[in-house]
Amino acid sequence: MLSRSQWLLIISCVLFCDLHKKIQCATGQPNVVFIVADDLGWNDVGFHGSNQIPTPNIDALAYNGIILNSHYGQSYGTPSRAALFTGKYPMKLGMQGPSITPGESRALPQGKLISEYFKEMGYATHLIGKWNLGYSRWNDTPTLRGFDHFLGLYNSFSSYYDYVTSWKFNGKDYGGFDLRRDTVPSWNDAGKYATDLFTEEAVDVIQKHNVNTPLFMMIAHLAVHIGNEGKWLEAPQETVNKFKHIRDPNRRTYAAMVSKLDDSIGAVFEALDAKNMLQNTIIVFISDNGAPTVGPSHNWGSNYPLRGIKDTLFEGGVRTVACIWSPLLVQSSRVSTDLIHITDWLPTLFTAVGGDLGVLDPDLDGIDQWSSLVYDLPSARNDIPLNIDEKTRNAALRFSYWKLIVGTSGNGSYNSYFGAPLNEDIDPQSYNTSAINDSPIGRIARKINYNPLSENDFEGLRNVATLKCLDAKAKRNPCDPASGAVCLYNIPNDPCEENDLAKFFPSVVRRIKRTLVDYRQGLIPQMEVTTDIDNADPKLYQYAWNPWRDCSDVSCSS
Ligand SMILES: *[C@@H]1O[C@H](CO)[C@@H](O)[C@H](O)[C@H]1NC(C)=O
Ligand SMILES: *[C@@H]1O[C@H](CO)[C@@H](O)[C@H](O)[C@H]1NC(C)=O
């Protein structure tokens, strides 16, 4: 017996084959390629309206798929990834606190991850790139948590060529190699630029893939996170040289890093095409959170005109770049403003591949959005608890078109606007739509679509996807929760969070506060940050970062 979602899959496949695309109808479970950028800014992709950093592949993917313009993650890496892998709100896992730093014992609690669900469905599962969900014990690491194969780093960052993670703790310096192929340090891969290395690995996985098995591949790029102190940003010089129009040398390097990321997505798409896998593949591209334009992990990315940066609950921290592409999407080439949260991917993709939702953990917070994506039906999600941090007392809830923020992260110094384009930059005056058509994804999309998008279509979609702040004459009362105020915004009208409406809508404030209190009931106190770095010191493990708490076990000395 086929389940309802399997029938839907077949029906949508038949529809798409007959009506929409030139490529053959695929049978079998769709492949899933999930690409996560790290700390990429809202304003750093072409399809959101900036001309400064051309991203023709990402734009082609977005225009031929669906631009998810109200996609929310958590405000920084570990909680976002925890939400993605588990389908649960981080506050339900005790993971609403800070990201996991090198030599820390915290890890994602045991419980089934997206990789394990896909593995049980018969998928070959690969993680390429960053983990950042704990590694103090082998059982915390990706190859013991549902991934058949892993090439990447355990920590939250490393340098881009030599894969060294340096960390200061209590005035002492720790440092070691952090690149692993499955369980073993991969010294031979050192020297190759991280984005290229991960791309080549992904292409290699695709080329060697046995097409009788469905593929689940997550590519969690290091880009565009910073590396180590003193060499924050790294990119090949020939790519940096393409951005002479950007005066700030750091921003110029950042642009090159984004450009390499764009090339990577194009190369993965080409490899899927060459292997005839595209017709039955779903590709998702998101950032884990907004860019940290300034502050501790500042990478010169820009969320402008959104307010705030990574680590704040303003839109610049949590509303992320996102799009989905697949021939299975019947209603594509549109901009969706339906609420979608990073926890939704697990049930959504599980349904997309014909899984039975009844099999999933009943405590899941994610909501299945598959049919709303495929057929452009209203989404079942009405609110998103963006976080409740019981220690800092910073919380925010998106509730229909409203958003309420209480408390602040840090001392409130990032609650304003950063990353506005600099006057001295001579940015390309126009958006090069023919470069989108000429990009690998643009070329392949034209080949496989009966009605390829025109350059005017690109402009039209981009115009819809570009946020418009309040007009110049509108009243402004920005509100700063750092002062103790409760701030309320109407996000569709005021995406830049410039005009607080709390005093005009006290009943809305009360209603949302009640919902926050309800969510608070399910909160598990956040795990203590337990740094154990002297035991984790890479010096003890041939200068590689390594699990250290169960070292009597297998591969400790590998
Ligand atoms: C707030 O924190 C930032 C960054 O840590 C620091 O530079 C600034 O001086 C602090 N401001 C106040 C008012 O404490
Ligand atoms: C736009 O892109 C096309 C194709 O990549 C290129 O040939 C052309 O020179 C670009 N135009 C401008 C103004 O940069």
TrEMBL record:
Q: Where is the signal peptide?
A: 1-25
Q: Can you give the residue ranges of the Sulfatase N-terminal domain?
A: 30-354
Could you tell me one molecular function GO term of this UniProt entry? metal ion binding
Q: What is this protein called?
A: Sulfatase N-terminal domain-containing protein
Q: Which Pfam families match?
A: Sulfatase
Metal-binding: is it a keyword of this entry? yes
Cite the InterPro entries for this sequence.
Alkaline_phosphatase_core_sf, ARSB, Sulfatase_N
Protein's UniProt keywords contain Signal: yes
> Which keywords annotate this record?
Calcium, Glycoprotein, Metal-binding, Signal
Q: Which cofactor does it need?
A: Ca(2+)
The protein's matches in SUPFAM superfamilies, at most eight in alphabetical order, are given as: Alkaline phosphatase-like (SSF53649)
Q: Which family does it belong to?
A: Belongs to the sulfatase family.
Which lineage? Eukaryota, Metazoa, Ecdysozoa, Arthropoda, Hexapoda
